Structure formats: C-alpha cells, structure tokens
Amino acid sequence: MRRVEVPADLDSVLDEAWKAAESIPGFLGESEARLLGTIAACVPRGGAIVEIGSFKGKSTVMLGKVTAHYGLGPLVAIDPHNFNNAELEAHRTSPEASSFNEFLENLGAAGVRDRVEVHRAYSTAIAPAWNRPISFLWIDGDHSYPGAKADFDGFARHLVPDGVVAFHDALHEFAGPIRVFVEDVLRSDRFGAAGFVQSIAWAQFRPEEGVRFRAERAALERAAAPLIPLLRDDRALRGFRKLRFKLQRALVPRAAVSPEAWASRLNSQKFA
Fold this sequence. Notes:
Elements (H helix, E strand, L loop, with lengths): L9 H12 L8 H13 L5 E5 L5 H13 L4 E4 L21 H11 L5 E4 L3 H4 L7 E6 L5 H11 L3 E9 L8 H11 L4 E7 L2 E6 L8 H11 L3 H4 L7 H11 L9 H9 L5
Parallel strand pairs: 1-2, 1-4, 2-3, 4-5
Antiparallel strand pairs: 5-7, 6-7
C-alpha cells in the first residue's frame, strides 16, 4: 500500500485555486472543489488526471491550478461542449449551442490553458483508443445511467492502484452517478476507502486490498442504495417521492472533509 501524503502547502494552494475557479459558471461548490484539488495533489504521480464533463471550466481550472503548482498531470478534459444552458438538466440543446469558447477563455484567464489537454468529443469516442494510466478519474458528464456507466466502464479500467474515481451529482436527482457508484464501486472489493462530500461520491482503487474496506463500503451502500429506486426511471421527483428522496439523502454522510482527514481515511488499515 502506498501511504498518502498531504503536501504541507496544500491549504494555501487550494485557496488560490478556488479563487481562480469560484466565479466561473458551474455547479461545483467550494467543499467539492477543495476535495477535487486534494485528490489531484495526493494521488500517485505518473498517471493522467481525466475529467469527463467540463462545461465552462470550473472544475478544470481548480484541477489545473493544483496540477500546475505540483507539476502533476497531464490534465485531460473531455467534453463535446454542445450545450450552453444555465441548467445542467437542459443541456441537450441545438448543435450550434456551445460552451467551448467560454471554456477556453476561462482556462486562459486562470493561466492554465497550456496545462490542459482538451478533447472536444464525447467520452465514448475517446475511450476505445485510450491506453494511458489514470491516477484520478473525475466523472461529471452524462448523468443518465447509460451515460455514467459508459464513462466508468470506458476509463476506470485504466486506474492505477491507489488512484481515485469520483462522480459529481451522485446525491442529486440523477439516475446514473449514484447507481454506478453503488453497483460498480461500493459492491466491488477492488475499491477501498470511499465516501461522499456534498454531492461528490469518491473511492480509492485498491485492487489487491479492497476487501479490507468491505465493511466501510457496505455501511455506505446501506445509506445510499435506497436512493436508486427513486431515480431509476429518470422521472422528475415530485410530491411524496421527492420527500422520500430528501429524507433518504439526509442519511448519507456527506460533510466537507479536510485534506488531512481525507488522507487519514485512505491510510487506515481496515479489515472486513
């Protein structure tokens, strides 16, 4: 097992990265952004940091500032940029609508344009030819179940041991991220420590030692899995069904976590 070490200056690096990313339109909260930066700074070196779903670059800038400071990467951003809506749920717009120009402008303004390998494409077009190791896989693309499943299946197989996978909006009203996280991550002994921070679900890839964290993952599954039937058909939640979703979501631990506390979770030697 590789011990996770938190850089001594990480808090100040995260402060600066969030300052650069905060004003960019997007759906990423500060505690979520700081978790992304923490993961990027602490995962094994030598693998790519892959972002699926960039929109206007909020998380891309956060990751770009951190990877630039520590000389990490490459940072790969994959997104067809075929939407330009204020609401993510309504992103299926005309072919002419695009977030691409704003995305590039935001990267340039933050000084990270040369740190990002940009692929203006669907992840399913990139995955078949992808052959590079991945240290951190950040999935924030198509939130339907087929979309999230395709993103995970296409890229998670390239995760290096002790690398991390994370899904955005796993505790929002989308069918895909939570189902893939529960069924393909929490129920797999190839993953170790796992958790939620706000709507981000994350887990460390521990293919040889994941069984040690089986009890921890199972406890998280018991809290999160009941959300899946409420979202399975992708119908908008209303009335009693929406109330049930909110009540069940409240049972899922999802508080913000410091870099030190996050690293401690990964460094623990739990046994099932």
